[in-house]
Design a protein that fits this description.
It comes from Shewanella atlantica. Residues 7-130 form the NusB/RsmB/TIM44 domain. Involved in transcription antitermination. Required for transcription of ribosomal RNA (rRNA) genes. Binds specifically to the boxA antiterminator sequence of the ribosomal RNA (rrn) operons. It is a single chain. With 134 residues, this protein is mainly α. The protein has 7 helices and no strands. The protein is globular and about 40 Å long. 72% of the residues lie in helices and 0% in strands.
Length: 134
Amino acid sequence: MKPSERRKARRLAVQAIYSWQLSGNNVADVEHEFLTEQKVDGVDVAYFRELLTGTTTKQSQLDELITPHVERPFDEVSPIEKAVLRLATYELTFRKDVPYKVAINEAIELAKAFGAEDGHKFVNGILDKIVGRK
């Protein structure tokens, strides 16, 4: 498995999670839409599926881990930052084979690519607190 295949899977998954959050559509429909309408060459499709399904099915549990570290109401966090935080928290919590530095770095890059100007700083701060780093 190439790291770039996982990176592409994360990128696609964060977009699918974002879409799911906004649309409220069934996650299986969102998955199908992304796999049929997006370019998936070089994407670890199995990892994409796991990230999307795991993040959406464990959303409440993930939000409980994230919320104590957010200094504003969680509803006010932008949807893209929520998607990135949920995906990264899923990896940090349920994918012990992914080093926390990799999960955090990938989340920062996703926040830079899709989020607000300083969204990556917000994401980094929250994830650092989740893993217990000061």
